[in-house]
Amino acid sequence: MPKPRYQRRKQDRPQEITQAAFAAFAEKGYTATRVEEVAQRAGVSKGLMYLYFKTKEELFKAVVKSVVIRRIDQLIDTIESTELSSEDFIRGPLLSFMKQLPGSPVAIVIRLLISEGPRHPDLVDYYYDNVVAKGIGAITKFVEQGVERGEFRQSAITELPQLFLAPVMLSIIWGLIFKDRPLDTDKLIETQIDMLLAHIKA
Amino acid sequence: MPKPRYQRRKQDRPQEITQAAFAAFAEKGYTATRVEEVAQRAGVSKGLMYLYFKTKEELFKAVVKSVVIRRIDQLIDTIESTELSSEDFIRGPLLSFMKQLPGSPVAIVIRLLISEGPRHPDLVDYYYDNVVAKGIGAITKFVEQGVERGEFRQSAITELPQLFLAPVMLSIIWGLIFKDRPLDTDKLIETQIDMLLAHIKA
Amino acid sequence: MPKPRYQRRKQDRPQEITQAAFAAFAEKGYTATRVEEVAQRAGVSKGLMYLYFKTKEELFKAVVKSVVIRRIDQLIDTIESTELSSEDFIRGPLLSFMKQLPGSPVAIVIRLLISEGPRHPDLVDYYYDNVVAKGIGAITKFVEQGVERGEFRQSAITELPQLFLAPVMLSIIWGLIFKDRPLDTDKLIETQIDMLLAHIKA
Amino acid sequence: MPKPRYQRRKQDRPQEITQAAFAAFAEKGYTATRVEEVAQRAGVSKGLMYLYFKTKEELFKAVVKSVVIRRIDQLIDTIESTELSSEDFIRGPLLSFMKQLPGSPVAIVIRLLISEGPRHPDLVDYYYDNVVAKGIGAITKFVEQGVERGEFRQSAITELPQLFLAPVMLSIIWGLIFKDRPLDTDKLIETQIDMLLAHIKA
DNA sequence: GATGAATGAGGATTCATTCAT
DNA sequence: TATGAATGAATCCTCATTCAT
Q1: pLDDT (0 to 100) of residue C11
Q2: Neighbouring chains of A at 3+ CB pairs within 8 Å?
């Protein structure tokens, strides 16, 4: 069944290309990935790439944005609609969310941002505004809620929500650099949560 | 106008080149740095570079190794020769050590490893063996010592020394990506230490 | 927003495209003009272009020919039907004709022929046969008529009718290269005519 | 005698490349000439081209300038140091100078300026300032001298020195477009000079 | 040992042309 | 017919590496 060499699929192309590019960037990084390779992965000609993305850089940005979108918003929605106590929410949905991050596309995006970020300040800003700021904000707000409810006490952690993310980040970086060396990231994150809760509980 | 640094001595060359390369890599990353630029920074001709380093990759490895050497060993020596109690040591020398990491060349090396590591498994191994394993080992050993001395209790942390590093790593990555966004890394690290100590003290 | 020009009629298409192409070539030259741009100017899809013109080159030839047609024949007709004396005709209709050439599409065609001519010998031949030869022939014949009538004397100019065109050509080239530098082309042409008439009048 | 594949000839390279480029541009025009072809003609690698000329455009400019330099200055020098009467100078050195222009590199430069000039306004300015303005100026000054000396009378030609150039320009363009069609350019130019002198002689 | 001129493989991008719809 | 998505050859330019001097 030889595929028709010529298919019109305008609707799907951007995503197909974006996905192929993500896979390629994940494997080789941005610079080492040739545009032609992305095209091949997407089952598309080199020229078509430039119909949808003016430059390789623009493709790069599209890739980052495509990964980012809606990931955080889900968490925030969950936070806002939850009826769980603060502790239960942290030990439940939040913990689950955190545990899956190191194995998710987010890890790849982190890698891309570390490698290419310095040359794409606008992308860094985009990522900060849409992911980091939102995430940090959500956690902060949630902790403050716990304080209001009397579940938590005032503590330095309210101003350092990054402490929630620290083990996640370490797990991500560990996975990026030391792929084969084992690390029990789940336990790492759990233990951090234990410590944090012990620290802030009233 | 590359200054003719005092008497050009052959034996200093490798280091001079290595330092220049490190500075260049720090600014632009490995791929974006041209060999010629390193040569200029080192006040040396392009051709001479290849007398000391067969390829750009080899130079890269030399750079990573040069940064790594002796940094960790100092910490280990300090640990082994200290007469402080475990807690005092942690709150003193170890905390200081951790605090200066985000601003140190280590951060640059992390960036390089994340960007280029996948293509240099041997370098990753080298780094793991000489830095990470040693560091992790030292902390583990130290915590175990605390337990033996009765200062600390048995806990999950003995097997997760990465919890000490987590806030450091987050600080490093934050600095790499979000250069301008403020983050009180010192406080972050201190608070983590507080929590860890609270968690493991007998 | 390409206006849907009244009722799109098939038979007008070739001319519409040809006109659009001429305008584009005039602005950017042949090579720098993309087929797609011509299509847009003509309010037509890229694909349709290829229904009327097999290649960009064929379009180019059609453009040159479309500009050429009938321009010279008008002059010749006028010459043949005039009842003016030779001098009066030269100072009247011929001078007017010459004066308007530098600002006319002919100037653009000259540019195109200079740029692309070497790669289109057949087009050059076409232009020579239908424009230059005819024009030169007409002037020659007209001058000879003047001699026969006793208005003019025999002179080198009978064999060098290009002397009539010289100031026109200089004006055209001047306009093509030095768009902004002023040149009184009318006076240039008039003075040349004065000199020529002084030279050949019996 | 296989040429050494690797020769150091820094001194001569720019000119060699410039000459090769001129030849290539003369044959094919700027756009149709590939950088690699110029390299081959110059017996040089593609990469070396970019050591001496940052871009193809810069090479183009260098080519134009290399042709222009000193050509006009020679004429001006001759004018200033001549002891001939105005008429004798015009019929002698000036006429010779004009006659050789259509077959000289200047013709090629004209072609390049017509084709590529619109995209290189600075180059057009350069050419105008260093060639056209100087040439026009020299002729004007020379004619005025003739008037002062009583050889010539006041006339429109003092303000239209382009009349001297008109037959030269026509000859150049004729040669560029109608390579094979014969035209007695020498006689054309001579006759124009005859007419001009007849017109301005006191 | 030093130098930096010279090489050439590699990769991004453009655009005339084709063809499924 | 008419469209414009899709193709791929063509080309500029970069930069790690080599080597004559």
Answers
A1: 74
A2: B
| Secondary structure tally for chain D: helices H, strands E | 12, 0
What does the pLDDT look like over D63-108, one tens digit per residue? 999 988 777 888 888 888 889 999 999 999 999 999 999 999 999 9
Distance between CA atoms of residues A20 and A14, nearest Å: 10
Determine the protein residue whose CA lies at the shortest distance from the C1' of F21. D8
- Name the residue among A178, A187, A198 with its Cβ closest to that of B156: A187
Q: Which chains sit next to D, with 3 or more Cβ pairs under 8 A?
A: C
Q: How many CB atoms lie within 10 A of CB B150?
A: 9
* B48 beta carbon to strand E: under 7 Å: yes
Question: Global pTM?
Answer: 0.90
Residue B201: helix, strand or coil by DSSP? strand
| All domains in chain A, ordered by first residue | 1-54 (1.10.10.60), 60-200 (1.10.357.10)
pLDDT of residue B11: 75
Residues contacting residue A11 through CB under 8 Å, at least 6 positions apart: none
CA of C56 vs C1' of E16, distance in Å? 8
Contact C173 D199 (CB under 8 A): no
d(CA D170, CA C168): 9
B21: which residues sit within 8 A by CB, 6+ positions away? B33, B38, B41, B42, B59, B60, B62, B63
Q: Which two structure tokens, joined as six digits, stand for C58?
A: 């064929």
Mean pLDDT along residues A136-154: 92
How far is residue D128 CA from its own chain's centroid? 11
Question: DSSP label at C152?
Answer: B
Instruction: Report the pLDDT averaged over residues B6-23.
Output: 83
Strands (E), chain A: none
Our measurement of CA D54 to C1' F14, in angstroms, reads 11
**A28–B169 CB contact, under 8 Å:** no
Q: Lowest mean pLDDT of A66-75, C13-22, D81-90, D159-168, name the range.
A: A66-75
Q: Which helix (H) or strand (E) holds D149?
A: none
pLDDT, chain C, mean? 91
Is the distance from CB of A18 to CB of A62 less than 8 angstroms? yes
Interface contacts (C, D; CB < 8 Å)? 117
Among candidate residues A7, A131, A145, the one with its CA nearest the CA of residue A73? A131
